[in-house]
Amino acid sequence: MREIVQIVSNRVVTVFQMLAILVITIGIIKAMLMYFKDALFGKNARKAIQESRMELGHSFSLGLGFLIGASILHTTIAPTWNDIGHLSSIIAIRTILNYFLMREIAVIEKKNNGEKKNGEKKPF
């Protein structure tokens, strides 16, 4: 029975890791397309950069979530103290990265919403 649980757990971890790769890759492609479309054919290159960064931030955040889930599942089968220490470090680093990504996204969205409400265009 234990072997079956390990096999299933390993497969699920692999699926989560593949989902993270897929989400991040799609986010990068989408951000690049948004940037090139706006930078080449739009009037405001700065806005294109901000929108691209927001897209990347959302993709990275979701990808990190999948990776954290995969790390937790990977450690659930007969963890050693070393495995638990590694998992704690991985989760701490990824959570801190996610926190700062989401904070930056919130700042940019707040700034963009303020500009839309005021109808103002900032010079930079």
Give your account of this protein's structure.
The protein has one domain. Helices cover about 90% and strands about 0% of the residues. The chain has three helices and no strands. Helix 2 (about 45-75) packs antiparallel against helix 3 (about 80-120). The longest helix has about 40 residues, at about 1-40. The protein is elongated.
Would you report the number of β strands?
0
Strand residue percentage: under 5%
Q: Total domains, how many? A: 1
Low-confidence stretches: none
Order of helices and strands: HHH
In short:
By secondary structure, the chain is mainly α. It is 89% helix and 0% strand.
Describe the SSE topology.
Elements: H1 2-41, H2 45-76, H3 81-118
List keywords for this structure.
124 residues, mainly alpha
